[in-house]
Design a protein that fits this description.
Elements lengths: L6 H4 L7 E7 L8 E6 L11 E5 L5 E3 L13 E7 L8 E6 L6 E5 L5 E3 L15 E4 L8 E4 L7 E5 L5 E3 L1 H4 L6 E8 L8 E7 L9 E6 L5 E4 L10 E7 L8 E6 L6 E3 L7 E8 L11 E6 L2 E6 L14 E6 L6 E5 L5 E5 L6 E5 L13 E4 L7 E6 L7 E5 L5 E6 L4 E3 L7 E7 L4 E7 L1
Parallel strand pairs: 20-26
Antiparallel strand pairs: 1-2, 2-3, 3-4, 5-6, 6-7, 7-8, 9-10, 10-11, 11-12, 13-14, 14-15, 15-16, 17-18, 18-19, 20-23, 21-22, 21-24, 24-25, 27-28, 28-31, 29-30, 29-32, 32-33
The structure holds calcium ion (CA) (4 copies).
């Protein structure tokens, strides 16, 4: 095996002092784009953050300036791509150090972003180290947790209308010590998100070296110490993953020397769970930016797939759901970055489920039976090469959010979708032997 350093040829031509980086597909073309937090104390902050658009041929374009995302006055530590307003476009929340307000950039859908930190109440002024995402109150809208020095961490509840409410003190998760990375996890699989925070003991008495905040039935959090009593380490980064494959997420923590790194093995209880691995076919293959909705026991829960949250670490790409003492899951719905929606009913519990984009639509990544051309089409008319053994007379048109909008007759082996306007569509071809789905662009 050998590697070639392709950094310069790929477009990474500038040396910058940087901390966190995050991947996300900002234009839903199936190619992951890259955001890098620049933070330079030597040059008085005059290094802007970097946004690189993936061109798909192992090269990237620096669109930091044209996308409006570069801000020369930020002291950015870490950021996270998240579609906070559920419009199908990944936005980005940036944790800024040294009392520079945190920033929320809303994706406008045309490779530009708008700064909405002020109007959304997310422009918290703090020594922010990291950004962690989770829907702690199960309303489907992702909430933000961002760490700080002694003044306290922030828990930003997403109100669902592009505004947030800061609730760290009232929820009991302010921490009020020097904090670094954090992660949401349902450690006891009782259907609510708990929160683990890495930190360090400082000069103040009462400082916490870390905290495991267990969610209570009254919707606040309490400090859980069992298993963490011996922690005096200065800890920076943490990550969750299921090290022994028992369905209960374990925690790895990176520490400053001379204390070794920690691995906390989660002692399982009798609660049930399911783990989910997503694989994109039209969306990016890692399915970054997907939202998973699970319904069990009359309660909905949500997970969001991210690549680059917390502080300089990466959680397992397997998504965890606890279902408590329930023994059934009603359904799991996957909202893919492409706009496709897949749904599975009554999956078995206490297992890992691998879901491939399009599974419930019969979408096949490699479909040579039916070829639509030209694709994209400039006039909405596609010609169809039918390599199957059966004639097809009609097809269903599915829009980009997975809804069937029409059934169309095929005339002279051609299909006209001009009436539906420009966009991405999926053509479902149902015959006696198979259901094929073809993605077309007009
Ligand atoms: Ca992209
Ligand atoms: Ca969005
Ligand atoms: Ca929420
Ligand atoms: Ca829990």
């Amino acid at each position: 095996m050998s590697f070639t350093d392709a950094s310069f040829a790929a477009g990474f031509t500038t040396a910058i002092k940087a901390f966190g980086s995050s991947w996300g597909d900002i234009n839903n073309d199936g190619l992951l784009d890259l955001f890098i937090c620049a933070r330079d104390t030597d040059t008085n902050n005059l290094t802007g953050n970097k946004l690189y658009l993936n061109n798909g041929n192992f090269s990237f374009s620096d669109i930091s300036v044209s996308s409006n995302i570069e801000d020369l006055n930020d002291m950015s530590f870490c950021a996270a791509f998240i579609d906070f307003n559920l419009d199908g476009l990944l936005d980005i929340y940036i944790a800024n150090d040294r009392l520079v307000p945190n920033e929320l950039f809303k994706n406008n859908g045309d490779l530009t972003f708008s700064s909405i930190g002020l109007s959304s109440n997310t422009d918290i002024i703090m020594d922010a180290m990291s950004t962690t995402i989770g829907d702690y109150n199960y309303d489907g809208f992702p909430d933000f947790y961002t760490t700080n020095t002694h003044a306290g961490n922030a828990m930003l509840r997403n109100n669902g209308d592009e505004t947030f409410l800061e609730l760290a003190d009232s929820l009991g998760v302010a921490f009020n010590s020097v904090a670094w990375g954090a992660v949401f996890l349902d450690g006891d699989n009782d259907m609510d998100l708990d929160l683990y925070v890495s930190g360090m003991l400082g000069p103040s008495s009462g400082d916490l070296p870390s905290a495991y905040f267990e969610r209570t039935l009254t919707d606040t959090f309490v400090l859980e110490t069992l298993g963490f009593e011996l922690d005096t380490a200065a800890s920076f980064s943490n990550a969750i993953g299921d090290l022994n494959n028992d369905g209960f997420p374990d925690i790895a923590v990176s520490n400053k020397e001379p204390i070794n790194h920690f691995v906390y093995q989660n002692v399982p209880n009798s609660n049930h769970w399911i783990k989910i691995n997503l694989e994109g076919t039209i969306s990016n293959r890692d399915a970054i930016g997907a939202r998973i909705e699970l319904s069990s026991g009359g309660q909905l829960q949500y997970n969001f797939t991210l690549l680059g949250e917390g502080f300089l670490g990466q959680n397992s790409m397997t998504e965890f759901f606890g279902i408590g003492l329930n023994t059934t899951i009603d359904s799991i719905t996957v909202y893919w970055p492409s706009g496709l929606i897949d749904k599975v009913y009554s999956p078995s519990i206490d297992q890992t489920l691998d879901l491939i984009e399009g599974f419930s639509l019969g979408l096949s990544e490699l479909n040579n039976q039916f070829i639509f051309y030209p694709n994209p089409s400039s006039d909405g008319i596609f010609f169809i090469e039918n390599n199957s053994n059966e004639a097809i007379s009609e097809v269903s048109i599915i829009n980009s959010i997975g809804q069937k909008i029409s059934t169309e007759l095929l005339l002279n082996n051609s299909l006209n979708i001009k009436a539906f306007g420009r966009g991405i569509y999926y053509i479902s071809i149902l015959n006696s032997s198979s259901n094929s789905i073809i993605k077309v662009v007009y």
